Every structure is written in structure tokens, then in C-alpha cells.
Amino acid sequence: MSERGVHRVPLSVEAVFLTDGRLRPRFVIFDGARYEIERILSVATRRPTGIACIAPTEYRVTICGTEKKIYYENETGVWFSVKEGV
Amino acid sequence: MTDRAILHSDLNAFYASAEIVMHPEWQGRPVAVCGSVEDRHGIVLAKSQQAKEAGVRTGMVVREARALCPDLIVAEPHYDRYMTFSRLVRKIYARYSDLIEPFGMDECWIDVTGSARRWGTPVEIAERIRREVRKETGLTVSVGVSFNKVFAKLASDLKKPDAVTVIARENMKETVWPLPVSSLLYAGPATVSRLERFGIRTVGELAAANEETLRGWMGANAMLLMRFARGEDLSRVMRDGESMPVKSVGHGITCNADLYTPDEVRRVLLELSQDVGMRLKEAGLLACGISVCVKDNRLECEQFMSSLPAPTRSRREIAEAAYALFCRRYEMVRGVRAVTVTAIRPVREKSERQLDCFGDYRKKDRLDRLESAVDNMTLRFGAAALRPADVLTNFKTQNRHSYLSVLPHGVVK
User: Fold this and answer.
1) Residues B18 and B165 placed together within one structural domain of the fold
2) Which residue of B has its CA nearest to A51?
């Protein structure tokens, strides 16, 4: 965890590769529950401030009507989100 | 004809910044990336801005750096990680041009002359690159914008970190000419001190020097520097993969412990010659001369050169010539810390050669076939597959961490 009180939370994600090679997340599995990703609002390469990672892809999505950001780190193949606080 | 638009992008304190990205808790603290002390590579390779402000310098021994900055965070280098960052940053450059010439792991020239219609002015492209590198990777770059490679590089050094600096023809005299000659690419300490002896201290003074007089004083290289100073560098940005003709092939090592006998040095030279011979083969070259550089345990260097009787890439011949040169010219008063063997004045393997009337070519042919067999085994199974028995007992050259990186090649033609 960083001193700024933000840390990475690894996620299980069900995603599909589209025929053009793009990667799109469909479901996030968290605490035993499976949440559908309703919409993908934007996709960009962006490093979240204060998080140790190498040029991840940021997906701005809506889950249960709430906007969330999830990240995919291509170098490690890991999905994660960023949690603030202890 | 309109001017070219060349960018030079330099990742600021690259190794240290990459470590801070991977350890965000180090942000704002003095960080230095240092080689392994156990392997006697314990010097500062890169430092963060805070470490720099505390007086830590690149090349400083770790102990000195810690004495200057007791809070210094000393990080081990992670070259695989730096390669990854370097590749990702080059992908950002590739959005704006296909003409990208790397200069080491952390610097690149980018020719954006043909990109204006799609992406805007060179300054706008430089700003985009600066923002995108920061946003996507967390690293910062200084981008120099100019009409040639030398001034673009100089511009990127003027303002750091995370900045864009422009040197145009219009502001060239005010911006560049008052700077010391050492700001120019390829103006090393020896050249700078020679120019100083002739009263030339600034880039402007070099640009205004009389050509004939300067040539008489210092030869062709000074003419090249003078052209740089006048903004007349015409070298083009070469695509990755294009390369300058090879001028020398060398390999050096800092030993784990000092060498005290000529035989220890001979075995290290033999080991280094294995790599030199292999790389000559890969480049399709033969060496006409050999150079040996020896650094003792007081870090004093001596370099010797000699011609070879005939062009060769034989590892054995290179090692024997290097050892003979060492014995002839070097007085072993102190322990030897580092040795480098360089094959110089290379010629193409297929070029015509003067044969020796009295040489034993049957024996040479047999040796060549033997070396070819060793080369083939090295290519298939790696450098450690087949080595001379003498090399296997070189306990003072066994590195726990070894990395091969391609160092910047010259732009001088």
C-alpha cells in the first residue's frame, strides 16, 4: 500500500477478446458475487496515481448503475481496481 | 525547402523514475539506483531529483552517496523492467512518426517533419508526447524540438524535468551560442580542453572560428563540431533496425576481485575474446587491429593498440594478440580491476586480403573450421555451451547478474 492511502485490489474478471483484438470486460467477480458490467464508458491507457503498475489500460465502466474504474495491466495480465483509505 | 522537424525525447532520471513508479511510497524521497556492491559494480547509475539536490552524482560510489545523503533509498537495478518501460514509451512515439532512432534505452530522436498535417506543429506533437508519457506510464520526458538532431538533443537537456524546449533558426544564436562547447553532442572533456587552449569556450565562438585554422589545429573532428555549432548537422533520423557501419567490436568486464598475475589477465582476455570473435562473425567482419584497455584498482586506465598480422575473427588469435600487447606494454604494479578487448579497423569478411607468403594456410584452415564449429554450437546452445578450459577457472569474472544491453552508437559519419 502506498503512503497516500490508495492501494491495488486484484480482481477476477470475465472478459472477451473481440474479433479485432480489443479486450472487453463483461463481468467482475468480487467477494463471491458476479457483477455485470453494464456499459464501458471509455478505454484509455492511464496509470492511476500512487499505484505501482506498468502502463495499464483503464476501463471506465458502470456496474449496478455506478461508475467504476477497473484496470488491466498487460505486462502481468492482472486486473485490478484502486481502493482509497486503509 | 522547409526545415526538418526533429524531436529528441529524453526520459528523466530513467532508472530512478521507473523504480519510483513501481514503489509509489518513494515519491518525493531521495532514491538512487545502484549496481551490486558485492559484484564491485556499486556505483550510482541513476538518481531522483531529491537525491541530486542532496549532492548525489551518477558514477559516485554507494558509500559516498550514503555519506552525502543518509536518507538515500538505494534500489537494485531491474533492467527487464526498464526495457519494458522503454518499449512502451517508444510505442507512444510511434503514434506520431515511423522515423524513430533510439539512442540508448532512454533517449530517442523522432522525425516529425511529415506528421504536421495530421498532428499539428512539432511543438504541439512534443507537448502531446510529454503529456501522454506522463499519463500512461508515470514517467516524465524532456523533449527538445529543433531543425536538426544535435540541436534537438541539446534542447532536451536545457529544461528538465517534464518540459518542452524549442531551438529554432530564429532563436539559435541567443539560445545555443552562449552555451559552453561541452553542451554539444560529442564534445568530450579532451576536445573541450583542447578548444579552450585555443580560446574557444562557447558554441558561438566555435561557430565563428576560421575553418582552415581549426582544421590545422584539431583535424576533421573539430570541423564536424563546428558544423554542429553552426546548426549545419544534416544527419538523418534512422529507423530502428537501420544501423551505422560498425567501427569496432569490444567487450569489457569489471572483475569480482583484482587480478594480480599476467596469467589471470590472460584468462580474462581469452574469455572476452570469445564474445568479440562471436560478434565479429555475426557482423560478417574481420579485425585488422586490436585494442586493450586496462583499469587498475585506483581506477586509472591505460589503453594500448596494435595491428594484427592479418585480418581475423579467430577468438584464439584475438586473445593471443591481446595478451601479447598487454605483456609488451603494461607494467603490472597494482591489481587490475577491469579489462576491455576491442577489435578495431574492421573489414568485410569477403573483402580481398593480402596473403602471407610464408603462412601455414593448411593449419589456419583447420583452425578456421574448428572456430566455425564452436560458433555454430554457440549460436545453437548459447555462449556457455563450449568454452576454452582455461576460462572455466576464471572465478574472478563470474557475475551473478549479467545483462546485455545495446549501447548508443555514434551519429558521426
Assistant:
1) yes
2) B24
